[in-house]
Amino acid sequence: MTQSIALVTGGSRGLGKNAALKLAQKGIGIILTYRNNQQDALDVVREIESYGVKAATLALNVGDSSSFEAFASDVQKQLQQVWQRESFDYLINNAGIGINVPFAQTSEAQFDELMNIHLKGPFFLTQRLLPLLKDGGRILNVSSGLARFALPGYAAYAAMKGGMEVLTRYQAKELGARGIAVNIIAPGAIETDFGGGQVRDNAQMNQFVASQTALGRVGLPDDIGNAIAALLSDELGWMTAQRVEISGGMFL
User: Fold this and answer.
1) What does the buried/exposed string (b/e) look like for 32-54 if buried means 16 or more CB atoms within 10 Å of the residue's CB?
2) Which of 46, 47, 133, 251 could form a disulfide with 149 if both were Cys (CB 3.0 to 4.6 A apart)?
């Protein structure tokens, strides 16, 4: 049986790393990308390989669409060299950054950086990788609970995530002819280093989020990684064009 392969952007740390590990534990091969820290990415590859699963890592700046053609070529080479395959099965558009700044003070440069990484990047990266994504494969985009509820300081970030939610429906509609299912997850506040690690390291913020969450605590990386692995399971292959919030019930 041919091993399935997932490409996880931003897979060297945070939620992307957790998702890559959870998928690998289910026997899925992983191509993960990193922005700057190659050593972190190689450490994740070694951990994946310890499960008896093949893995590879590639550098990628999701905010630079001019690099996508060369990146797709590198993906193709890795598929051939590591797996002797021409295609992969799952694309997880996870890579991202957080900028917390009030709407009135958001600069055009900050807006453009968020747009390039969170909206333009996934749009054109997915487009460029379509020839390598197998028919019947899956795309999983990443939004945020902030696209549903509003917290001051995230206007630009959340606007991009809202755009990704609309894009997901269009991708599902237009790629359905190839049997490709496209969904989007919306994590709530999670204890990672994202956005400077505020949710994880600021006790006051952590307690506030927990108090506003139905299940009574802040989310952990495993909560999201396990959900991603479940959403990409064969059992959910008929689900497409859906936004799935994984927040423990924040701000209900």
Assistant:
1) bbbbeeeebbeebbeebeeeebb
2) 251
User: Rounded to two decimals, what is the model's pTM?
Assistant: 0.96
The pLDDT of residue 191 is 85
Cα 4 from chain centroid? 18
Q: Is 154 a catalytic residue?
A: no
Instruction: Dump pLDDT digits (tens) for 130-146.
Output: 999 999 999 999 999 99
- What DSSP string describes 22-71? HHHHTT-EEEEEESS-HHHHHHHHHHHHTTT--EEEEE--TT-GGGHHHH
Q: Are 8 and 94 in contact (CB under 8 A)?
A: yes
Residue 187, both tokens: 């994590």
Residues 210-239, mean pLDDT to the nearest whole number: 96
- Whole-angstrom distance, CA of residue 16 vs CA of residue 34: 10
Q: Active-site residue among 34, 90, 154, 157?
A: 157
Look at residues 184, 91, 196 and name the one whose alpha carbon lies nearest to residue 133. Answer: 91
5-190+219-246: CATH, from 3.20.20.70, 2.40.10.120, 3.40.50.720, 3.40.50.12780: 3.40.50.720
**CB of 62 within 8 A of CB of 122?**
yes
What tokens appear for 114 in the block? Answer: 């968020």
Residue type, 217: R
* Residues 6 or more apart in contact with residue 198 via CB below 8 angstroms: 100, 205
Output the six-digit token pair for 168.
Answer: 């997901």
